[in-house]
Write a structure and sequence with these properties.
alpha/beta, S-adenosylmethionine-dependent methyltransferase activity, seven-stranded mixed beta sheet, globular, Rossmann fold, methyltransferase, two-stranded antiparallel ribbon, Methyltransf_11, transferase
Amino acid sequence: MTGMPDHDHIYTNEAAQYDLLISREDCRHNIMETFRRLLPNLEHLDVADIGAGTGRLSCLLAPYVQSVVAIDASQAMLDIAADKLKRTGLTNWETCVADNRRLPLPDHSVDVVTAGWTICYSANSKVDRWNVHLETILAQIQRILRPSGTAIIMENFGTGDEQPNPPDFLTSYFHALETEYGFSHAWIRTDYRFTSVDEAERLSRFFFGPDIADKVSAANLQTVPECTVVWWKRV
């Protein structure tokens, strides 16, 4: 892709616009269905959502789990997550600013760690020593999980595509999850349904860049297909 937006800038300075984008994601509700399949007895589980952003997964899980802590490197993103969680009236949540490689939680303190579209920023092949970063993050996840806990990682498996088409720079990371770290995986559709073609084009250009935005505009897409890969492992 060419002319890709600066996601670090977006997460720090345009968090509200980003939150509008993700509010359009997963119009078929496949993410929650996946959680229910992987996590029986949700109501008894303490969850750490790392790289939580504006609370996409934290807000989804909070009504159903015992507790959730949303962790992200961006205070601006967490401010929006906290506002959304406050508006639910729930009190079983907290937020914390931290890097995925230095999680500020005690050993064996949660039953589930979720990581949605976040580890990829440290573990893609464009990043120097990506494999070391991956090892560090997974060691942190292992450290904070209780025995028989579950790690769930979600990543891009093709935005704008109806069938899996993962970015080349993520394939080594995915291969390592499967062959070195013993994760299982499946893919789901997490399509975006926008209020109009104009909104679809504008928000796609904002975050995904011109290639996908031009495709959306040319095909008059109000629903933009997306594939997401779900990796999971019980410790």
